Amino acid sequence: MSKRKLSTPLSTFTRKCLTSIAPFSPFKSSPTLKRCTYISSPPPPITPYHRLLHDPSYCSLGNLRASVKSVSSVSSRKIESGCWNCHAMPESAPFLVCQSCRSIQPVDISVDYFDIFGLEKNYDIEVKNLEGKYKNWQKKLHPDLVHSKSEKERDFAAEQSAKVIDAYRTLTRPLSRAIYLLKLEGIEVDEEQTVSEPELLSEILEIREAVEEATDSEDLNHILSEMQEKLRHWSTVFANAFKSRNFEEAKSSIQRMTYYERVTDEVAKKL
Question: What are the boundaries of each domain within the chain?
């Protein structure tokens, strides 16, 4: 395949079906990921906890959530008092674990993902600094480490651990981080919305066609490089739009990032 600029006349648009392009959803966990399990006896030398510390993608967030589905939603609340066990007041935020008696606290619905990692609610963050904080939380919250505690506290640990995993996965990816920031502003992004701009649709169809026709790694890497450049560009556009509170432009940027990231994933599967 020749190294051509990925653009095409609008005629391409008429050859394809709008519904053939499904946007990428950053919050869907792969069904093939191994499920975390709870144990009632001391953990063996290698446990899901140890795998999770070194590979957050090992544990399916969807499966972890399913395993705690039976926990009463009453435990999720806004914390307005002290520790449920010793009644000590929080020494610092977020209040996930009591600093006095070390009891794990119920999920506080007022604590967002940025609070968990001690970050300002900004799009531009130092992603590399999240891993250490993530591991520290899992050392305190992961269900494998609280098997000897009461059922009530094990339930709290399962909920808190699931929220920390969700927070880590969301904030480490530019697209999901952008969507989450708008959600905090009360703006929901419809990830299933079909492209309505002919120029963008034409470009996306051309890119997908190029991926299908690629026959070697050189062609695929060329496409991948272009997609990464486009993602960086629209990531910057989103950051500027969010800072200026131009939420319509921010949503438009997310739509483009969604499609470019999906193409990136398709290319990675073929490499």
Answer: 11-24+191-270, 48-172
